[in-house]
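Quick one:
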Amino acid sequence: MTPPTKSGPRVNEMIDVPQIRLVGPEGEMVGVVSVKEGIDLAIESGLDLVEVSPNADPPVCKVLDYGKYKYELQKKKNEAKKKQKVIEVKEIKMRPGIDQHDYQVKMRAVTKFLEGGDKVKLTIRFRGRELSRQELGMDLLRKVEAELGDLIKVEQYPKMEGRQMIMVVASSKMA
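Output:
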């Protein structure tokens, strides 16, 4: 008993096991029969014999219209693809000495991204002598965290990576 090698289920003569558990064209259970009997029943009803559960013992086969079956599977796959939301990581870059108005603009952007279901990577860039005052960057990220409060869940706490301090936040509704 070998599972299907090509993509998709085995159909009609491709089923190479001696016995199968057969489900009829109306969805009724026919029982355990030979593959030949299953194919004969399928041809009789003008449909195909399709292996729906190859790993069962014996494999389960159904009498149905294979073209329609493939179409339904494709439709289900496309529907599932439509419903899924791809979470992006948006990046907001700031400097330790950011002005109040610039900070408010950045915070509005952060809020908009979080409401859209995206994660936000907050990056504080240090240049020159600012690198010796890393506590300013830490204070800024703490201020962001305090201001957003219950709206966010911190996924990566502030840490230094070279000349930048990074913190990743996500909407608390996602968790």
